[in-house]
Every structure is written in C-alpha cells, then in structure tokens.
Amino acid sequence: MQPQTLPPELWDSIFSFLYDDRPASLRSCAGVNKQFSELVEKYLYRKVTITNHGGLRAYPEAYSAEQMAKLLQNKPHISSYVRSLNIETYIFDTSIRIRSEKVLGHTISLFPKLTEISLSGCHHIMASWIIFHGEFQKSFAHILRLPTLETLTIQDMRQFPLHLLDYCTSLKTLRLLRVQAAMLGLHSPLALPSPPAQGLSNLLTLELSKGVGADLGPLIFWFISPKTPSTISLKALHIHLTHLYDAPLIQLLLNSKPADSVKSLYMNVNSQVRTVFHANAYNELHRTSSPSNEQIWDLSSLTSLQTIEISASIDFARVVSRYGSTILNASYVLYSPIPWITRLLEKPSLPLIQLRSVVIVLTLPLSIDAVLLLGKMDWKPLTDIIWLLARRYSLRSVEIRLMTSSHQHFHGETVTHDVQEILTMLEDNQHLEMLIRKGILKLNSSELAITFPSN
C-alpha cells in the first residue's frame, strides 16, 4: 500500500501512537523507503533529547550534541520539525565538556519552531549554569526569545539567572523544579537587549518544587517583585512542599498580585503536614499533636479559586516495648494529613465562594493495619466543612483518592491491599456513612476513590 492511499489523519494517528508507544518502531518505519521516511520524520523528531555527553544519557533515545549536529548537517530540513527540546547536562571532564557545549550551543540555535524547552541536570544530579560554555549560554538565551515558546522547565540546576525569563514573552507554562541558588541580579555576561516590558504577561501556569539543597526564596521573591509585569494573570499554580518552614514563603506567593486570578491550585505536601495519632490496645485513636496556625496557608486572597488538589501521604509506625527478647507491649502511631487539610478549608477569613471541586490524593502506607485505622479516624471535621461549602456556596465535587498499588513489598514480603476491604472499612465510618446515605458521598471501587458530589 502506498502512503498516499491513506488519509493524512490516519497517518497522523498511526505515527503519533508509534512515537508515544515505541520510538524505535518509528525509526524502523523510517528505514522502509524514502516515502515512509519523509512521512515519519516529522513525528520522529517532534520531541528531541540532547545531552552534553553521549555516554551519560538519561534516556536511550537521546542524542549527544555531536550526533545531533551530524544529523542536522545531513538532514537540515528536520530542524523545523522539532517542537519539544529536552537538554540534559552533566558535569564531567572540562575539556570534553567545553567542546561538547560549544557544539550544543550551535545546534540548539537551529530549531526555529520550538514550543517546549527543558533544561535539566542528568539523572537528577545538579548542574550549574555558570560553568556552561558561553556559546551554549548565548544560544539558550536566544531560544528563550522564540515567539513560539509556550512551556519552559528548568530542573536540577544551580545559579540559573532568572532575569532570562523576562524575555519569554509568549510563555504560558513555567516549571522551576529543584532550582538551587538562582541568581536574581540583572547583570549578565551575555550581550542581550533590554527585556521587553510585557515580560511574562502571557504566563498561565506556574509550578514550583523544592528539592534537597534547593531554595524557594529567590524564585518567589523574583516572581512577586515589582519588576514582574502587573498584567500576569495566573490560572493554575502547582506547589511541591518539602519543608514546613517554607510555608510563609508560599503564603507570600498566594497573597501576590499574579495569584489573584488563580482558578486551580495543586499542592503536593507529601508527609510534611501530618498530625500524630496514637492507637491504644483497642485501636482507638487519640490525637497527640496538631498543625500550628502558621503552618496552614490562608487561601482568602485566591478569590477566583475553583479547584484545589492536595496530594499527601499517610505514614505509620509500630512502637514495641521489650524486656530482653520479650515483647511487653505493642502500639501503633498514625501520621495523617487530614486535620491539616480540614484546617486549610476552614481557615480562609473570606469564604471560598467560587470553589467547585476539591481532590484529596492520599498515598497509603504499606501496612494493612495502618489502612484499617483510617476508618477509626475522626472524619467529622472534614465532612462538616465539606457539607458547609456544598450547602452554602459553590462546592459541587470532593474526591478523596486513595493511592496504593495492589502489591507492595514490605521487609521483603508482598503486601496486598484488598480494595473492597478498604471501601467497606470507610463505609462503616459513621460520618462517611451518613453522607453515603444522604446521597452526598459515593465510593468508587474501580478507582479506589471517594466522591462527594453536591446535591
């Protein structure tokens, strides 16, 4: 069958599927004949990963800078096919790295239609902007100014100059993930024109994540500074919290002018916001700590907020008292984010009258004993505030999504969570059961999710 006998839409579906499923299969298609090669190339090179060292590639499909330069020399037309560029960098022998980065700098400047760019360290190892070769720095600053650029990710990077982002006038999504010691100064060795006045005025989504050694402070202070265009109207904000002492910084961001228009807030708080519960011999839970008021954000300033998604984890510990080799007593400690989440929804001095949807994603611990203790938690404060927001304001859907794999390994043993057992346990909780009976609460066993749709 000749390629032209099939409609373009079908070829698009076939090659897009092959690329997403197995890029190597797509490369095989390219070698069938010249006609297939011409059809396949625009899919094969739509997303490209280049590294500054071919022997330390994060992805098997990645190209070294030299490989991509040679490919473009033989097939210069494919440069216009590249839409997504992922640059993986690694710190190694200086002479080899400099030579590779010079080639990399020349190569990335040849892609005129990029819509997505990612610059990151290799295998989550921090790279440093200030040691990159000047040719690469200059070319990277150039591609940030492309009018087609919509998404930018800077990840696992030290000393990245934030003022370069002022040139991204068409940017819609910005992801700053584990960025350490970011530079706020406007001075740069690069010969750049003055940044345009509109700067990031088209930005709609901001994602911030802090890792070990990284610092959210410079990122937030840069974003909320008076130099940031007042025309920014964020629609979505993603925050990954790794330390509670960052909570005041996050509050500054939530209170800033660019956040006024946020409609969707996504928070990954991991195990940082947990409240401690001790279980007695009868498996009755008693709270022994509570989140402080300073650790809970006030969402009052987000007057346009319609959706909140909170991801958190439930942790568990078994405390054993021994006399020699004899176990005298064993008790359980449960660490739960539910009280913090409840307070988050209760705290706003101005009600979240626009809020329509809340998703709570809970990662369960490995122990089935901990999972069964969930049914004995006091769910009443959470269900009360949900019912209040649904009855008086705009809340229409609250989902509590319990995330756990069907088979997990704990001390070398396989642990199996029985989905139906977990659902039954939650149904038996008097507060959740009341909402089920009223038709407000629904349990979704296929997703292991709990849904609260408003009447």
Give a structural overview:
This is F-box domain-containing protein. InterPro entries: F-box-like_dom_sf (IPR036047), F-box_dom (IPR001810), LRR_dom_sf (IPR032675). Residues 5-50 form the F-box domain. With 455 residues, this protein is of the alpha/beta class. Helix content is 28%, strand content 26%. It is built from 13 helices and 21 strands. The chain has helices spanning 8-21, 23-30, 34-44, 65-74, 94-108, 134-143, 217-224, 247-254, 338-346, 368-373, 380-392, 419-427, 430-437, and strands at residues 47-51, 63-64, 84-89, 116-121, 127-128, 151-158, 173-180, 205-209, 236-240, 264-270, 275-279, 285-287, 307-313, 315-323, 326-336, 357-363, 397-403, 407-410, 413-416, 442-444, 449-453. The strands form 3 sheets. The protein has a 15-stranded mixed beta sheet that branches. The protein has a 4-stranded antiparallel beta sheet with strand order 12-11-15-14. Strand 14 and strand 15 (326-336) form a beta hairpin. The protein is globular and about 75 Å long. Residues 405-415 have low confidence and may be disordered.
